[in-house]
Amino acid sequence: MQLSQNPSTPILKTLAKKISKVSISELLNDSERVAELNYEIGEIKVDLSRQLLTTSVLSHLIKMANTSEINIKINKLMDGTFLNKSENRPITHFNLRNTSRRNAASWLKLKTFVKKVRDNKEILDVVNIGIGGSHLGSKTAESALKYYCDGPDIHFASSVDPSSMSDILNKCQPKKTIFIINSKSFKTTEVLNNAKLAKQWLKNNNQQQKEFIYVVTASKADAITWGVSEDNIFDFDEGVGGRFSVWSPSGLPLMLAIGVNNFQKFLDGAFIVDEHFRSEDSIRNVPIMMSLVRVWNRNFLNYASHGIIPYEYGLRNFPRYVQQLEMESNGKGVDLDGNTLVMPASPLIWGEVGTDAQHSFFQFIHQGRDIVPVDILVSELPAKLDANSKHVEGHKILVANALGQAEALAFGKENLTEPHRRFHGNRPSSLISWKKSNPYNMGSLIALYENITISSGLIWGINSFDQWGVELGKEITKGLLDENGSSKIRPQLKRFLR
After folding, report:
1. Integer Cα distance of 466 and 330 in angstroms
2. Which of 474, 478, 488, 494 is catalytic?
3. Distance CA 227, CA 221 (A)
4. What phi and psi values does residue 324 have, to the nearest 5 degrees?
5. Could you say which of 18, 116, 210, 359 is catalytic?
6. Chain Cα centroid distance, residue 234
7. Mapping DSSP to helix (H, G, I), strand (E, B) and coil, where does residue 430 land?
8. DSSP-derived secondary structure letter, 297
9. Contact at 8 Å (CB) between 344 and 332?
């Protein structure tokens, strides 16, 4: 069922027309409402009280979720009985967070390899060659957990621009560097091109490929054909989508950085979110409630974009991660049966780390004509907590900025004599917080956003688990690079490919 077909949709459209008369500042005076819109999941706290949500709107959003049978579908997803129809696959990434996985032979292979590499003090650098989901998940978590990284230095090569790979290799020593080719399909042009550069670099430096190149893929046969030993391949399930794969062997760079024990805590933090997602009623289910807010803002209030603003330098890659997660999953134009969507899905996701964002685009968010709901993310304690009082004081300033921006967006400031100093306020934001950025909490945070994306897709009635939209450009690119297809290139393009 599409969102347009949900019986609650006409009612919510009517309520949305009346929302201009509603003030967030007045809503915040209702202490009972504020309490109801504050949630906890694991160690993550979520405050939705600064959203344009009245009691009536909330009631009908919950009805909308229940009519779409969201809880039933979530259970089917987690049981592996909800199919990704266009690829005829179950969704299996939830299994990766379950503790039962740690009895599997595949986990033992990962664990043994990680210990071997981390114990080998000759290995100083690991280069992960991937793109999209095989790149952003580990990169985001690794930067967020920098103070837990006590293994080799991790480098992430994703751009096909040769200067990117060259810059990384210039920092590495051939005898002290291993490469992880991270590609589910083992057909991605950017990944394979960079993998060839790595292979050539090792050859030029008289190093054996078998000792230094490892592969993470769901296409083992292709990796073997390319020349990788089967012992050096870490396989993972076809039902694990790239953007949901940081928990899989695709997260091997993160495991190497933080170690097996911390990676298990990362999985544990995600598992507690999954258990909540599966069992909690809609009205107290944090991922469902956050997805309902996303749908309300996108489809009923017509806010086309959504900002992700983490107030922690370690989370600087998080906006890009959420951008891919949401827009590749839910940037769709048809429903599960292939019918054109009547109402759009997925907002445009963008963002930047605070406080940098305040000095780049917050002018637009505060006073521009377009309203952009934002998620403001902040930890209560600094990522590196030590006796350095200046470090702690700096974190207090950071937290004050996060809270100050949330309040300023909600309340604004009237100024009738100087219009350029007027802040209209009434601009929605959600505040997501946790005590400290450790592996457990980062696992919870990433799983939370995965599950927001999934539940939003269920409400929109779309397939959040395929990404056919990336294929056409790839096909045209391949044709441009194929010598046999050169005659088909439009003349004005030929000059670029000389």
Report:
1. 9
2. 474
3. 10
4. -65, -45
5. 359
6. 23
7. strand
8. I
9. no
More confident residue, 93 or 390: 93
328 is catalytic: yes
Residues 395/375, Cβ–Cβ less than 8 Å: no
pLDDT digits (tens, 9 = 90+) for 453-477: 999 999 999 999 999 998 888 888 8
Specify the DSSP class assigned to residue 341: P
Alpha carbon of residue 97 to chain centroid:
16
Residue 461 DSSP code: T
Bigger pLDDT: 416 vs 259: 259
User: Which residue's structure tokens are 């000095």?
Assistant: 359
41 forms beta bridges with: 44
List beta partners, residue 46. 39, 432
Q: What is the radius of gyration, based on Cα positions, of the chain?
A: 24
Of the residues 142, 280, 326, 328, which is catalytic?
328
Cis bond leading into 355, ω under 30°? Answer: yes
* Predicted structure pTM score: 0.96
Give the distance between the most distant pair of CA atoms in the chain: 74
359 tagged catalytic: yes
Buried b (16+ CB within 10 A) or exposed e, 5-34: ebebbebbeebbeeeeeeebeebbeeeebe
Average pLDDT, the chain: 94
- Cβ pair 52, 30 in contact under 8 A: no
Confidence tier at 389 by pLDDT (50, 70, 90)? low
Contacts of 407 by beta carbon, 8 Å cutoff, 6+ apart: none
The three-state secondary structure class of 375 is strand
Q: Which residues contact 46 (CB under 8 A, 6 or more apart)?
A: 38, 39, 40, 286, 289, 290, 430, 431, 432
- For residue 401, the one-letter residue type is N
Q: Is 390 exposed, middle or buried (0-12, 13-18, 19+ CB in 10 A)?
A: exposed
Query: Who contacts 358 (Cβ-Cβ below 8 Å, separation ≥6)?
Result: 401, 405
What is the per-residue pLDDT across 220-240, written as a single tens digit (0 to 9) for each? Answer: 999 999 999 999 999 989 999
Residue 483, pLDDT above cutoff 80: no
242, 133 Cβ separation under 8 angstroms? yes
190 included as an active-site residue: no
**Helix pair angle (286-295, 55-67), 10° resolution:** 110
